[in-house]
Amino acid sequence: MPESRRLFFALSLPTALQKQVIRWRADNFEPEDGRPVAAANLHLTLAFLGDVSDQKAGVLREIATRIQSPAFSLRLDDLGHWPRPGVVWLGTRRAPLALLQLASLLRSHAARNGCHQSTLPFHPHVSLLRGATRPVALPAATPQWQLDATDFSLYESRFHQGRTRYQCLQSWPLLAAPPLPG
Ligand code: 2AM
Q1: Cis ω before 85 (30° cut-off from 0)
Q2: How far apart are the CA of 48 and the centre of ligand 1, in A?
Q3: Is residue 125 annotated as part of the catalytic site, yes or no?
Q4: pLDDT digits (tens), the chain, 182 positions
Q5: What are the domain boundaries of the chain?
Q6: DSSP class of 32
Q7: Can you identify the CATH homologous superfamily of domain 4-173?
Q8: What is the Cβ-side half-sphere exposure of residue 67, based on CA atoms within 13 angstroms?
Q9: SS (H, E, C) 127-146
Q10: Is 43 annotated as catalytic?
Q11: Is any ligand 1 atom within 6 A of the Cβ of residue 45?
Q12: 8 close to ligand 1 (CB < 6 Angstrom)
């Protein structure tokens, strides 16, 4: 049997933002609302690949190396709850075109390489709580954080000793905006 690993492309959150998010989460949710996602695991998935052989992962890494997509910033100014699958998430009211295009590109390459892609529309989000299947009182005030995406990464999801850990395998830069003339 060839080796396979559970992989996904995602945007990471800088450590400072991770800290702000978990502090705010601790102040605004109750333990019974759901299981907090560990700070280091906070991310925004671009394309979920599923269990992928090392050979296929190599092909997708090659493709990622050739991607030339612009850097972008997004406001994390939206908050929601999906009782199924039980996720409280942080999202954005206005997704930048560059984010949507990058996710779409990665998803179409994934599909072309045999990684099943959900038919649900892409809804960019950072999962904050899992196992949140019961009603949750969301805080009235939505935070207004900014995420500056200057690169995207391939992550491996590992389950070890009862914990899920996402390990960054490789990152690729997004293209910096050219300086304004004058
Ligand atoms: P979620 O945060 O909404 O649960 C790693 O599992 C990441 O891939 C998670 O962020 C998860 O999204 C996302 N993902 C997307 N589709 C998935 C699927 N079919 N199974 C597991 N994770 C999926």
Answers
A1: yes
A2: 6
A3: yes
A4: 558 899 999 999 999 999 999 999 999 999 999 999 999 999 999 999 999 999 999 999 999 999 999 999 999 999 999 999 999 999 999 999 999 999 999 999 999 999 999 999 999 999 999 999 999 999 998 889 999 999 999 999 999 899 999 999 999 999 997 777 77
A5: 4-173
A6: G
A7: Cyclic phosphodiesterase (3.90.1140.10)
A8: 27
A9: EEEECCCCCCCCCCCCCCEE
A10: yes
A11: yes
A12: yes
User: How much is the pTM?
Assistant: 0.95
Q: Going by C-beta distance under 8 Å and a sequence separation of 6 or more, which residues neighbour residue 108? A: none
- Residues 39 and 126: beta-carbon distance below 8 Å: no
Let me know how long the chain is.
182
Assess whether the C-beta atom of 48 lies below 6 angstroms from ligand 1. yes
SS3 (DSSP) at 46: strand
Say how many Å lie between the CA of residue 178 and the centre of ligand 1: 33
